[in-house]
Amino acid sequence: MKFAKLLRNHLDGIIAHTDYCISSGKIEGINNKIKTLRRQAYGFPKDDYFFLKIFDITRTKKKARLKSDVTPPPEVFYEAQKAA
């Protein structure tokens, strides 16, 4: 009975997830980083420093891509076939 009530209460969200496949995992990860920083930040002299630290930990770090990782657009293949 409890499970059926739980499903009934959350049915709209469950259906929306199957339609759109949006996950809140990234936001939850950022929130976890901020909570951890807040515990470590006890004693920071100013709030401005705390917010700067939040901006620093939430920046995305993009790894460098190798030339071999980049796939050329399909036009390159078509042009190569025409030339051959």
Plain-language structure description:
The N and C termini lie far apart (69 Å). The protein is built from 4 helices and no strands. The radius of gyration is 24 Å and the shape is flat. The model has no long low-confidence stretch (mean pLDDT 76). It has a domain of 37 residues. α2 runs antiparallel to α3. The chain is mainly α and 84 residues long.
Helix and strand arrangement:
Blueprint: H1 2-20, H2 25-40, H3 47-58, H4 74-83
Summary tags:
single chain, 68% helix, 84 residues, mainly alpha, 4 helices, 0% strand
Low-confidence stretches: none
- CA(first)-CA(last) distance: 69 Å
- The radius of gyration over CA amounts to 24 Å
Give a quick account of the main beta sheet: strands, pairing sense, barrel closure: none
Helical residue percent band: 55-70%
Counting DSSP E segments of at least 2 residues, the number of strands comes to 0
